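Batch job 17 of 40 flagged for manual review because the log was empty.
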Amino acid sequence: MQLFYTSFQGSGHDAAYSLLAYAVKKEYAIDLPALEKTPGGKPFFPGRKEIHFSLSHTRGYALCALSRENVGCDMETVTRPVGDALRLRVCTSEQLAAFDFFTLWTLKESFIKYTGRLDRPIREICFTRDGDTIRIPESRLHCAVYDLYPCRAAVVGAETPPETCIYVPPEALVDFPTV
């Protein structure tokens, strides 16, 4: 698994797909394969089922996880204000005692992207901490959290996440017509 992120101006959607094109070229030495979307809206490569990916973007930053197995990732800007109503809608007070809000939010969103569904209230998706190790609802899965100030990013997948997330300068990206 590899994680890439970039900063951008303009469309986060376009930046995320440009970052995906960069990552696929770097990791597989191929141009971006044809994309389709599942009925739920998750993009995938129908002709390259061995390549899995997940995308996220937030206020000026984009994230791309690339893996040989299913993967989910999320990125959020930690400098934005979040009210108590949102905190308590997304997290229990017990969860907030063990994690900060943005760590939980990115982990939960990554898990939802991994599974491709939200089959229970987001508040009920539980992560626990055992020292520095984060445990996730599905014990066979791995996760990691990355502090990329001013953002927090997380990834959930069957593969062990990398130690670091690779920054890609915006000038290294090319324009890509999105789906």
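Reviewer: the log was empty due to a logging misconfiguration, but the result itself is present. The helical segments are 12-28, 84-90, 93-98, 101-115. Unflagging and moving on to job 18.
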